[in-house]
Design brief:
Elements: H1 2-33, H2 41-44, H3 49-52, H4 56-62, H5 72-106, H6 117-121, E1 128-130, E2 136-137, E3 164-165, E4 168-169, H7 177-186, E5 196-198, H8 201-213, H9 223-229, E6 232-235, H10 243-246, E7 250-253, H11 254-261
Antiparallel strand pairs: 1-2, 1-5, 3-4, 6-7
Helix pairs in contact: 1-5, 1-7, 8-11
Length: 272
């Protein structure tokens, strides 16, 4: 009987925390939409609910005692005060991780005491490949890539619906009950670079060809330089509907060409 009572009290506690997290989610969604009422490039590359819910200040509110009244306004005040600083530190942490990853891949020096991630991430050759969708991305857009926020219990077959309980897959395990509560509200995990890697050899080869075709040095050319060059490259292997306008060739700017080169059917892109 005592065990049953404790179980009921624990479930009541978890329900209260999940209710508070729902309020927090509403606050975060409102902040993301901003005064314009829509998401922007900046908001898409910023922390999401799953990240913000783990902020110490936010967690303290969500886990306040049962007899303490916590409202959306309370979360709003905390987010207004602490979210900008958290966002800045979150972006810096992600940037350092990506910068170090790319520096190692390209054989560039990396001073851990005084890192300069923009030096390497700003290179035209600095592209990342998503292991999940096999597409290429640059920083900072990679921070908005949904594959790096995989759903909890990430499975691809139809059995996901049979194995979900409270929005969490049966194969997900949490040592921290609060993180489980966040998962039940969030659906998507916090951002992680685990499913990401610098462009593989075949893509680096394509990148070097693209940059050289634009008259620049692959070892030092910055992405901004490539944008300013505004050159066009062509591909002979991809069907084009409007042949009369391109003589049967797909014409692309350099960024589109890099993204296209990640497609398995487009490995033999010809550059001009």
């Amino acid at each position: 009987m005592e065990d049953y009572k404790e179980a009921c009290l624990e479930e009541e506690r978890r329900e209260l925390i999940r209710s508070r997290l729902q309020d927090l989610r509403q606050v975060i969604n409102t902040i993301e939409l901003g005064q314009q009422g829509r998401r922007t490039a900046d908001s898409e590359t910023s922390p999401k609910f799953a990240d913000a819910a783990l902020m110490p200040e936010v967690r303290a509110l969500a886990e306040a005692p049962n007899d303490v009244s916590i409202s959306q306004e309370d979360f709003d005040k905390v987010c207004i005060e602490h979210l900008p600083g958290f966002t800045q530190s979150w972006k810096m942490k992600c940037t350092l991780e990506l910068g170090h990853m790319m520096a190692v891949r390209l054989g560039r020096p990396w001073d851990a005491a005084n890192p300069r991630p923009s030096d390497v991430l700003g290179l035209a050759i600095a592209w990342f490949r998503c292991d999940r969708c096999q597409k290429n991305f640059r920083y900072p857009n990679v921070l908005a890539h949904l594959c790096l926020r995989t759903p909890y219990g990430d499975v691809t077959d139809a059995s996901i619906w049979e194995n979900l309980k409270d929005g969490i897959h049966k194969d997900d395990h949490f040592d921290d009950p609060y993180e489980r509560d966040v998962a039940s509200i969030s659906t998507l995990r916090p951002w992680s670079a685990k499913g990401l890697r610098p462009a593989p050899d075949e893509d680096l080869l394509a990148l070097r060809k693209i940059i050289e075709a634009c008259g620049l040095d692959p070892g030092s050319a910055a992405a901004e330089e490539m944008d300013e060059a505004d050159a066009r490259v062509t591909c002979d292997t991809i069907p084009v509907v409007w042949k009369s306008k391109s003589e049967g060739h797909l014409v692309m700017n350099w960024r589109r060409a890099v993204c296209q080169s990640s497609a398995p059917a487009s490995r033999s892109i010809a550059y001009a």
